[in-house]
Design a protein that fits this description.
signal; two-stranded antiparallel sheet; D-Maltodextrin-Binding Protein, domain 2; alpha/beta; 42% helix; Phosphate ABC transporter substrate-binding protein; single chain
Amino acid sequence: MKFIVLALSLLVSNVALAQVVIVGSPSAPEINAAQAKRLFLGKIKTLPGAGSITVVERQTGDALKADFHAKVTGKSEAQLKSYWSKQVFTGKAKAPVEVDSAAMVKAQIANNPGAVGYIDSADVDASVKVLFTPN
């Protein structure tokens, strides 16, 4: 029984240590916290030196998505859903592309150099560049 409790506590501590990072193509410019928030709320659609941006999100219900938005946009998933419904309905913004894994985020970036998304820092490889690390 002690072994099971120890194993579960190690698993939980590893999950808690996960660090979400915003990534883009290797040629994309680094961004700051204000740019990150505005990008992921559809308020800016281009970055200097990168041109038009496509935002790639994780699927609703993904723990990384909830963690990311708590740190970057300050919105819960329910608030995001409401926000994007309004933005799309009024024509102010196009909803982000949603994918269900870090591999799919990286594939979107590989296929579209103007794409930005977020993944766990452990999933970063040479195919992407870390553009910003939220606190």
